[in-house]
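Dear colleague,

As promised, here are the two records you asked about, laid out in our usual form so they can be pasted straight into your sheet.

NAME FIELD: protein one
SEQUENCE, THEN STRUCTURE:
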Amino acid sequence: MNPTASQAPIVSIANVTKDYTLGKVVVPALRGVDLEVHAGEFISIAGPSGSGKTTLLNLIGCVDTATGGVVRVAGQDTKQLTERQLTHLRLHTIGFIFQSFNLVQVLSVFQNVEFPLLLQRKLDKAQRRERVMQLLEQVGLANHARHRPNELSGGQRQRVAVARALVTRPQLVLADEPTANLDSVTGQNIIDLMKELNQKEGTTFIFSTHDAKVMSHANAVVRLADGKFLDRISAAEASRVMATGGH
């Protein structure tokens, strides 16, 4: 755990299940998962493809609902919230870096990053511009502010998604493979930015990754297998396990 992490869990998951129905077949994605993440932690979710990593992040991020069990975010039982309350929680508490980017194609890079700030209605135009340009500078895209997403490479679109997730300074950031489309140098820059926010502002990060180098920065690694919670281990131990191909 990060030394600055508080004792109050910002995420609490109890016996959570998630099933998907394909025709007449029920496919379990998560099977009785229990997990607590405290404010200020920097947590990696690891596991092979199909282990439930993205599903778990979607439940925590309130973009999907659990079939069973309880998901609490910032002390709130997400199943008990109205759609309006869920929207408020997503907008003011959570930043989400989607693996598929989910950028608005008709908006410029600047406008995509600014959009959450417009919805929040907390900053004036000058303040929004300063915040957005600061983030674009940090992710190396200040010179691309007027470009549209279709004019960018996959790695550049990923960095726009990172900036958009961080621009509201959320308490909790969820990232689904945040460095998957980036070269090693840019990926390291993104991880450094995430770590800086974690250490200086106490932002909680939960991210999935297959990259051992990215995983090594985590305070702890939560491993999933076949939709089940396997264990919670240190980043050093996770690196040893990956190196040996063991469990």
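NAME FIELD: protein two
SEQUENCE, THEN STRUCTURE:
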Amino acid sequence: MEKFIHDVIIIGGGPGGIQLALTYKELCREQGKEPNMVILEASHEVGHSFSKFPVHGNLISNNKLYSGKSYKSRYAERFDWNSLVTKDKDILMRNYSKDFYPRRESVVQMLGDLVCKYELPVQYSTKWIGTKKNEDDLFEVETTKGVFLGRIVVVATGLKPSKPKIKGIEMVTMYEDMKPKEYYRDKRVMIIGKGNSGSESALDILNEANVIMLASPTPAKLAYQTHYVGNLRAVNSIIAENYQLKHQAALLDCKIENIEKVESGFEVTVAYVHAKGEVETLFFNEIIAATGFEANVELLIHDFDINIIHNKFPSITGVFESTEVKNLYFAGAQTHGLDYKSTSTSGFIHGFRYNSKILAHHIAEKLGMVEREANSVEGCVVDLILDELNNSGELWLQPALVGLLLRKKNDEWNNLGHRTSYEFKEMKVKEGESLVFVTLEYGDIHEFHDVLNIPRVPGDAAESVHIHPVIHVKIEEDIKENHLEEHLESRFDKDKYAPFLEGIINQIEGASAISK
């Protein structure tokens, strides 16, 4: 076992782990220090999962090249869903692909170049085997290349395909093992799963198979209807249109009770959800299981008995720390447990890159590298808030989850940086202090039957359904929400919005004066 003790061990060289390492190194360098960290990557390359997934090659994360502002601006981050965030922004997805939906290989190349340019300490071909804590409260991370000692461990091992518990499932083809599309020519094909992987698979064989049926117990949900980017994206939804237009396609809301192998295919027994429990046996030549993904943390379940939430993700706090194991953190898609099926996007690069940045600041603060408490607001606090609302990628892409935290103490405002709403709600407010948490949030889209036909109530900010500013004010234990009205292009101009913000700030400063 090596004697050297790392401050930070990052397990996994995907975008979540690499973003954490990039930001942490930037923070250390700003303080004239070198980061004492290591990244353990099982493969020969970083971002290796993107050499396999999505199976059919195209990402569904937007690569919008032109936003009306410089491609290196904070504002442009809102529409670049694949790049990682660095201070110089020299390495961006636009350097590797001009397509709106890039090929998956572009991510692998981009991550590799980031590692080289920023000289990140990656140990390749180092497979994680297990983890324990020793008597000194240090982590011992066992790998195929020995044991690594660390004060803090961050698990960023991504997601793995999920296999449902269905009788006979072992006989079907899993999404990751799907055969070339010509194999399915003129065959009846069932795809288990109606999410993006299932619909992507259907799209691949749409002009080869004769009949395609997608099956799962719950109806397909379209992302534009829910504001949840993990739901079925329009680019993958052609199969739903073919179903509605009766083009040898179907979406079955059913429970699969049994899969039986027969001479030329499979007989599948299904119980329909919307047909009073009617049971039917259907024949298919081929079956593909594309049933989503779950956190790749089975080693931690074995070693530390960590809790799993939503049957997918590790249970974590608002600073991405395990709820069971001190100094064990998570990065990347494994942080999605905080906002699963909500309007924020921690299951995807454009969301969890900001979680990794927040985590890097938290770890740097914990290890004494930085002190966020000392950052005084320079200039007008209202101008700072307006700039954040108009330009921040953090607030725009992590609505309601990530916000800018400000503190009013005595006569001074402090900028405490970006935090999660969970951390904000748990923070204690000292006497004479106030906390302000600035977010962008959606209203409740689910109350409308037709999300493309939502009535607007001009002048009533509380009725805003589109993304809009929310200013959360915490004095003592009470949190008050102040909604500002939505704008079609989310331009929160000073002339219109500054008076509302000034009113909120004046109330806070008045309350602080009274409490002195």
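A couple of things worth noting about protein two: Residues 381-514 form one domain. The chain has twelve helices and 23 strands.

Best,
R.
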